[in-house]
Write a structure and sequence with these properties.
By secondary structure, the protein is α/β, with parallel strands linked by helices. It is 42% helix and 18% strand. It has 14 helices and 15 strands.
Amino acid sequence: MANLAREAAPKLKWLKPNERKTELTTLTKKSLAGLATLGFASLVLAGCAGGAATEEAAETATEEAAEVAEAPSVDFLACAVSDEGSWNDKSFNEAVYDGLKAAEAELGVQIADAESNSPEDFAPNLQAMVDASCDVIFAVGFNLVADVNAAAAANPDVHFVTIDGWSEGNANLKPVGYAMNQSSYMAGYLAAAYSTTKTIGTYGGMQIDAVTDFMTGYYNGAMAYAAETGETVTVLGWDPAAATGDFIGDFAPNSATSKSIAAAQLEKGADVIFPVGGDQFGASSEAINEAGVDAVLIGVDKDIANTSDVYAPFILTSAEKRMGAATFDIIAELSSGAEFSGDAYIGTLANDGTDLSPFYAFDDKISQDVKDRLAEIKAGIIDGSIDPLA
């Protein structure tokens, strides 16, 4: 259903994902109450990483808000249509919504959104945004590729952005993609270094390029560690050469299939698992608890340890796909008068479109030598001396 609500919000600066949780929870009690009277408080709370603020946090936020001027209003309507699932999916939908809300708060733009509950919602939700006269419409996820291309072709004067998708020759459709093999290569190296069994695992939602890009980088990073140290490292769940591996078959969060794959990899000795399928951290952490083993997970898309207190004890790091930053930057450029371009945006380590999250509670369990090597690997990927796909 489309949401065309408008409400001023406290001014925020754009923060990297590992910094956003604290900032987003400083929405004032007054602001939330105002939204509730319009019937949209639940939407804002769901999109702001973590539910109601405590009384103390609300009081602090109210004091801070009094000192911060609201962003001046800008005559620009930025819109987004979600993939299946909610805007608070702890994955790519939420990441884009974070960017949308930050643009509203900092840039003063207006926003509208349409949440899709099934693929049948994609086309009508896109049309609802067209009918709302949006200045730019973000279609989140590769599942919307056919529908957003059809919408772009039917509305050549409307600007569209496809997240994790591609354009079928539509000049008014901007693809946003990510070289996730880069940060995932670093994650694979870290996983192999951290593992005590030297058996690590990965599995995906579906066998598509947007998923296997993570898995291939992870595999190659682990093999790089093995080559450097002379240790034997086994990666379960993906063989890039044979293009075979473990896949759930969909992106349903925390499914029984996801849990069974994680359990099978744990049984084979994996003590680090990289589930690439949105929110699979409930299923995989349950598998770890039930197996009674000392194992950890690597998050995807967002800084999972920072956005979920429940998952944080299991998360070694996350390979972030910083879709919120790209969403914000595109809105910032267009709302300031820049000409729309259908040229693709590719998030890389070099432009901060992807990276590893902080190690948080695991920081003291990772040696300085490994940290230094990860920094060297990052620099090598950026300067081209290391190819994460080789």
